[in-house]
């Protein structure tokens, strides 16, 4: 399957969403470059990265994955369900801030506001998915990073170095403003009333338990697998090491996510259509996998060549460890592009147990690798172990996916 043919089949709406993702990541990258180059020290950026990791992990389950049920709701049920989700989010954030206080987390208030804002943005996003409001979805992807970029540009203009407190508060304020604006745009057709809480929250949790059980554990494990290493490195090695690793992930995963999401959207739609029509799946799986393996290799080779040169040009020798980490993780980035888009098969075939098992294995690999890095104070060794074990995991996932596809076609015939 040629890449040009693949994208010709892609509908204009998907192109708009992909373009907005590209713009959003580009804006985010500019903000990070301004921060790391001009405004914040390496140590400040490392501690800020740890703050982002904490909020990302907690935010991944702030709505208990119930937002994924929104597209299936009838018009009469949507308003009261949205109010219930806001109530659940509020209770979740109340519990979160108590836990933050209990563990004396330095930015308990800011983290809680960030989690609440992320939850509102997530809720608004799925509301727009249900209404097929593609322009609103695109705006939602760009808005938070755009506001934060304006803040960083303003700080750059003043010429002052930004401290950790100011950085955290600025980021939280950016997402709070974005959440309010995005909610106004997304919920303008909904009549959100406190009376809609008359339906028991417990009854809703019971009736929607399949979404909670199917998606919450997987989302939490996936988020923790990427974010916990940043926290471990900042806590047990140094903030500077955390900054190096975090920047490597941001620069390396940027192109990976863009390419992977493009393939994933198309593959998911094609597989779902074939499943509905009881048609053979393997030809699509084979063609898409050839494309992801081929174009993924080209993308990673370019990434390995361009990004280290770019980092050296921008930072000099300040972020040499970041270059080493990107080069070490390049095989993993390739495996993600090659295999991750194909995992849409698990959702189409409702293989939730396999999905959770895959995420659990990734989580354990992440914890093991960076625990070793912390024990021996060697970030590079931990990263190498993480790369090798993760690549082996993706190899097994590809083998398992192929088995699932062949079994599905056998059952069809």
Describe the structure.
There is one protein chain. This protein is mostly helical and 413 residues long. The chain has 2 domains: 14-207, no CATH class; 227-413, no CATH class. The chain contains 15 helices and no strands. Helix 2 packs parallel to helix 6 (134-158), helix 3 packs across helix 5 (108-131) and helix 10 (239-276) runs parallel beside helix 12 (320-339). The model is unreliable at 1-11 (pLDDT under 50).
Q: Give the overall shape, derived from the CA principal axes.
A: globular
pLDDT below 50 for ≥5 consecutive residues: which ranges? 1-11
The radius of gyration computed from the alpha-carbon positions, rounded to a whole number of angstroms, is: 22 Å
Largest sheet: none
Mean pLDDT metric: 85
Secondary-structure map:
Elements: H1 3-8, H2 12-39, H3 42-59, H4 75-102, H5 108-131, H6 134-158, H7 164-186, H8 201-207, H9 209-236, H10 239-276, H11 282-315, H12 320-339, H13 344-348, H14 352-375, H15 379-412
Helix pairs in contact: 2-6, 2-10, 3-5, 3-9, 3-10, 4-5, 5-6, 5-7, 6-7, 9-10, 9-14, 10-11, 10-12, 11-12, 12-15, 14-15
